[in-house]
Structure formats: structure tokens, C-alpha cells
């Protein structure tokens, strides 16, 4: 059973003072009548943590993550470190009884993720891999439409997802867990999981381009779910693409704009687009629709209030399933990590 929550306000700690964690803190501040407070930030660079704290009016800052894990006033920690450090930081926090929301990918290996989910269960604390897509209201609406047979039986999902990332070190460097599959492709995999509700029977990669560090910078793949159901995706860090997904059924189509952080859904039946505008924020965001991290934070709060150790929107089992699929896909194209 989860440890009890004594207050209806979540006291957040932030692990790493970077761009995504800045976006998360900025997004939190847009929640009306908020039950969220950012109490502390920690980074391996103490000066960076101090600057982050000053910019965001956070009362506590720590040099390293040990003191954050020991801060008894912090209920939950958002982990936004570089990919290879997720496992160690999350393990430390769970061991100290903290609830954790960790940026995706939660780990670079399946067995590490299994260990973290087991530890969360043993300690009775909430743990979520940050598959923020599932928390957007557009995904709730998509679920309703699919359940109501609005476009009939889905037989195809088409995705193009691309940004120019050739100069982004965390994506291009193998030692930093770089991979466009892990950075962007994971969102295509989760949409297939969301729509079809089952793992693919076959994974067919093609058109892969590796850089000099043997990091995948572009890949195309087909996921075959059987019964003539497929997902076809182009994922690239070499150019900017339309970044939409089209879900094709026997009676129509649904288009998701910026499908991984979708704020507009368009149906092929001629009805008006459905939109969910994001609010203005104090600071500009670094990433597309990052204000939508507010939905993920609220989901964490609701789950902790209900004393859940996982969110039904993206369970531990669902997370592990996607990690297994992404590992298989990376093995197919020859991308490995030295961990």
C-alpha cells in the first residue's frame, strides 16, 4: 500500500536544472488553483541549481541529489537528468520513499526498469515514466472516438516525426543515451500501443541512418499487429517534418496535430477541428507544447491522492512493453549502449 499523503498540496523536488525541467516548472505555474509547490531543485552542478532556484523562486537548492532525496518536505520528484542517469537517480529517490515522475525513457535497459518498478511497489510509492502524451485531453477524446467506433476498425496509423537535431549532443552521442528512437520514436510506439492495445507481432525497420558514433539519427519502421493492422513511421533528427499522425479506419480518419503533445484533433467527416489551447506562461518554453506538462503533473497529483503506485493512463506494464519494443527495434538496427 502506498505511503499516506498528509497534505493536498504536492511539494515537488526537481532533479536536474535543465531545459525540460525548466519547462516543467513553468508549466506547473499555469495550473489554476494549483495544489503544486516547487520546494527544491538539485543538480550535479550546484551553481546551476542555485541559478535555477533564483530564476524560479524555489526556496531550496542542492549540489547533487543525495540532499534532495533526504529532504523530508519533498513529496515527489520530477527527474529530468540525461538518459543514462535516470536509473541511478530514480533508484536513490525511491529508496528514500519519494514518489517519482521520470522523463522518458525511464531507463536504457529493460531489466533496470523492471527493478525500479519492483522497488516502487516494495516501497509503496508512486512511479511514472513521463509519457505525457497520455495525459493530454486530446488522448481522452481519441479514446472516446475509438471506443464509439467513430472511424470503424482501425487498420493503419501513419506517423511522420522529425526535427533537426544533428547539433543536439544528448541526441547524437551514444554515451549520453542518444537515439532518435528513444527521443521521438518512443512516442510513435506509444500511439500504436494506445490505438491497437497489443504489442506488434513483427517489427520491420528500414532506411536507418547512423551517425559516426553509431547513434540512430533517422529510421523508418513498420509495426505489424496482425489482421492487416499496421503502424508506419518515419522518425528523423535530420529535418523538420509535419509531425502529425493519421489514424485510418474503415469508416474515416483522425488526424492528430503534434501527435505526441496533441492540442488539435481533426476528423475526416467534415466536422470542425477539436482544439485544447494551452495557457500563456511566465517564461517561453523550450519544446513544442511543453505547457502540456501541466496535464502530466495533475495526473501525478490525482494518483497520489488516490494512493496509487501507478497511473492507469500509462501503467508500469505498458511502460515495460514499450521498452521491450524499443530494445528490439534498436537491436534490429545495431544501436547499443555501454551500460
UniProtKB/TrEMBL annotation:
- Write out the similarity annotation: Belongs to the Gfo/Idh/MocA family.
Q: Does the keyword Nucleus apply?
A: no
Q: What is its EC number?
A: 1.1.1.179, 1.3.1.20
Q: Which InterPro entries does the record associate with it?
A: Gfo/Idh/MocA-like_OxRdtase_N, Gfo/Idh/MocA_domain, GFO_IDH_MocA-like_dom, NAD(P)-bd_dom_sf
Entry's Gene Ontology molecular function annotations:
D-xylose 1-dehydrogenase (NADP+) activity; nucleotide binding; trans-1,2-dihydrobenzene-1,2-diol dehydrogenase activity
Domain of life, per lineage = Eukaryota
- Which ranges form a coiled coil? none
Q: What Pfam families does the record tag this protein with?
A: GFO_IDH_MocA, GFO_IDH_MocA_C3
Q: What name does UniProt use for this protein?
A: Trans-1,2-dihydrobenzene-1,2-diol dehydrogenase
Record-annotated Gfo/Idh/MocA-like oxidoreductase N-terminal domain positions: 11-130
Per the UniProt record, the lineage of the source organism begins with:
Eukaryota, Metazoa, Ecdysozoa, Arthropoda, Hexapoda
Reactions listed under catalytic activity? D-xylose + NADP(+) = D-xylono-1,5-lactone + NADPH + H(+); (1R,2R)-1,2-dihydrobenzene-1,2-diol + NADP(+) = catechol + NADPH + H(+)
GFO/IDH/MocA-like oxidoreductase domain location, by residue?
140-254
Alphabetic keyword roster? Oxidoreductase
